Amino acid sequence: MIPKRKPHFNQNYHTGIQKILKAICKYRLVLSGIVSWITLSFMGVKAQDPHFSQFYAASLSVNPAFTGTESYEGRFTLNYRSQWPKLSGEFVTYQVNYDHQLFPSRNSLGFYANLDQAGSAGIRSVNLNVLYAYTLPLSELLTVKAGMQLGYGNRNLDYYKLVFGDQLSNFGATGSPSAEPNQGSRSISYIDVGVGFLAYTKNFWLGISGHHLNQPNQSLGEIPEKLPVRWSIHTGYKFAFYRPGENRNKDYSMALNPAIYYSQQGAFKQLDAGANFYIDPIILGVWYRGLPIQKSVEGALVGSFGFKYKSFKFVYGYDMPLGKFAAVTGGAHEFSIFVFVGDEIKSIKSRRRSRFPAFPSLMH
Questions:
Q1: Which of 311, 262, 263, 313 is nearest to 285 (CA)?
Q2: Is the pLDDT of residue 21 over 60?
């Protein structure tokens, strides 16, 4: 008698199920780790500021000395960033800005407000900031600016939206209540102080800034934790190109704008480096975000596209993360909208009378 061959269907079926369960388990462990990180970060570990990959489009939060550098008579800006959209509860940041150069005086005023929503854990941060900058032309070629920022911040946490480890299984959330004590909602408010300095010519600029100089307490737990000071240095250069025979007193038709932005806040360090290319009216950018010498930090490649139309600008950027979690997180999306208010021609004439050289903007 010829023995019957044992079917392999069940074996393949069970092997496939095991692979699926392992994948789900790994994925849930990643989410569980992220949830734990969020919880610990805002209950007792020193926090970090939200960061825009298009830092040049959110310049007021980079350095208060940028106040009034690119405005004609007034500049409104809206910034939006959505980070890790593939995860449950993405990280979203909104920022609204306004600044104004008070021609022909040397004073500039500004304001920005941001809202940061950290994941699905009900953690929200609101910051309101007023800015002042003073312009000092050292010569017809070199100008320096000094700025300061005074802000009010509030951070709150809704414990009802938190998910703890004992509420997760290999198949997802159990729906059962956690054994952790329910502490309702918590909130903390604080005052924030920052300063910045900027030097620039027609083509070159260099700035330094310090935020959270008073190191406010942001802890939502029982143990106070100070927000570390964030130091940054940033520089850039503009290569402007003109059409043959074009009047050099008019705006250029093309420009290449490389720049570097480095910041450090506590143990966290970050480098942004790249360039924007402007060919009227299109803006294209390629950037790298990360710190190559620090292996524990996974970076990202950032591509951006935008356009300029009269007093309106729009720029969209996408962060393509590098590393093993790139496919899981989904990167980040950003867009920035600029609206300039006032008469550009009158502003340029006023700037010339006051002998303020134009700032070499990265956006055009």
A1: 313
A2: no
